[in-house]
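Notebook entry, structure prediction.
Reason for the run: the old model in the group folder had no record of what sequence produced it. Starting over properly, with the input documented here first.
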Amino acid sequence: MEQNVKQSKEHGYDKAVVLLSGGLDSTTLLHYMKQTLGIRDIYALSLIYGQKHARELKMASWQANVVGVKEHRLIDIGFIGELLQGGSALTNPDIPVPDLVDLEEDQLSQPPTYVPNRNMILLSTAAAWAESVGANVVFYGAQAQDQYGYWDCTVDFVTRINHVLALNRQTRIVVEAPFAERSKAELLRIGVALGVDYGHTWSCYCGGEAPCGSCPTCVERQRAFEAIGMVDPAGKAKR
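New structure, fully documented this time:
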């Protein structure tokens, strides 16, 4: 992580694209880019891919407005959700989002909430937009999940994505993931120091008006707030 941050400062990025979901991780990253890295022109990209927790997109818009991004684009790629519907609890209404405690040991490395190749698709889209607006970097809010994980949130994944993007013969786009080796509690400490309003973020995979409190991301979020001795300003879980 420290190496990634050092690289960002050395490059002196003044224009960048960020994948902004409206969740805790990407929101922290957005504020970090503006306040810590001092990136002047931030292009925020939020994607509708058929996710059950589409409420997160309202939070993305709120945070983008607070930070004062150069442009925030909300793009509907719902065909991805339709195409991949059978492969994920996040996009298929007939597959329930599981509670973390119900996951088997062998599911923790790739739970039913994994969306096939989602992050590669999102990063490819963000890299294309970056190239079109004259930015040479995409920031990605991957972090080291404490309880479960996805292969496309790892440092190795980011490294290999950058190897592919480096094949561009004219405009090389770099993916930066400064939190890829940080826990969610560490991200929270960074965000709290930056004054991030986490009451305007959404994590629950189930959607709804209140977090379920038991899906993998709800549990991870709760434990992160407990680890830093804070009450989650987004409110209590419904159960």
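Summary: The chain has one domain: 2-227.
The old model has been moved to the deprecated folder.
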